[in-house]
Amino acid sequence: MCMPPSRVRRPRRYLTCEPRFFDVRYSINPWMHEDAPVDTELARRQWATLIQTYRDHGHTVESVTPVPDLPDMVFAANAGLILGGRVFGSRYAAPQRQPESAVYALWFKDAGFDVHEPEAICEGEGDLVPVGPHLLAGTGFRTQAAAHQEAQEFFGVPTVTLRLVDPLFYHLDTALFALDDGQDGGPGNVVYHPDAFSPGSRAVLERLYPDAVLATREDALAFGLNSVSDGRHVFIASQAVALADRLADRGYIPVPVDLSELRKAGGGIKCCTQEVRP
């Protein structure tokens, strides 16, 4: 019997935002229901557990100060993409979230980053996922394909457009995550749910990542694809049990975290986590 390979953790720096004002006041994705009760204190406790879990595993976590009347600020991943020490900012599709861009841009600038404001709709790491030599870029529901071209020109990284076709998986980070981001110079690897993508996009993923972990619809509905990997540990929704088992078979260590209250707004672990890449 072959033993799975030993995986190596790489310390990360994450940017987050406490869900102090979290609520579901509008509906901009199929997960959001304005009449659903929301327990903000529970959301804060679940989020605090995620932050402590990152720190317990050796990662640095920083936070943006939350702003009243911006209930979705907790979803820091949508604020931009930091790659090679540069920031490609956000331009939200929903008017309710548009003020978040300026708040996060101020944090980026104070941290010493130059910030590019995209001309097209672009929702940051929600639809932009660096993996090895490529930048995977989702479109179909939020981020516009024109933003992919902007990102390629800005970063100088080959950008691969992937079309999402299921409204439940409205951002790329609900349908795919980087298992190994390839920052050691390798090609990287991903986990994804094939049926979330158009046939052509599935074919591209099959060609780029022949050893990818394939997730079921049940995995995706449990927000198992909204995960964060440090190369060894995979911080994954506690409800995605079957996917966690398959990752363990590959030599990764699943770290279950429950963010079920935040899922009422269509968000999970990755949505709450912006990686600050040097």
Describe this entry's structure for a reader.
By secondary structure, the chain is α/β, with parallel strands linked by helices. The chain is built from 6 helices and 15 strands. It has helices at 40-56, 100-110, 145-155, 199-208, 217-221, 241-249; strands at residues 13-17, 60-64, 81-83, 86-88, 115-116, 128-131, 134-139, 159-163, 176-180, 189-192, 213-214, 228-229, 233-237, 253-257, 274-275. The strands form 5 sheets. A 3-stranded mixed β-sheet has the order 2-1-15, sandwiched between helices. A 3-stranded mixed β-sheet has the order 3-4-5. The longest helix is centred in the N-terminal third of the chain and has 17 residues, at 40-56. The mean pLDDT is 97.
What attributes characterize this protein structure?
6 helices; alpha/beta; 3-stranded mixed sheet; globular; single chain; 278 residues
Short characterization:
The chain has 278 residues and is α/β, with parallel strands linked by helices. Helix content is 23%, strand content 21%.
Low-pLDDT segments, ≥5 res: none
**Average residue-wise pLDDT:** 97
The percent range for strand residues is 15-25%
The helix/strand order is EHEEEHEEEHEEEHEHEEHEE
Summarize the amount of helix as a percent range.
10-25%
Inertia-based shape: globular
Distance, first to last CA = 40 Å
Q: C-alpha Rg, in Å? A: 17 Å
Largest sheet entry: 3 strands, mixed
- The number of distinct β-strands equals 15
Secondary structure category: alpha/beta
Q: If helices are DSSP runs of H or I spanning 4 or more residues, what is the number of helices?
A: 6
Q: Which sequence of strands runs across the widest sheet? A: 2-1-15
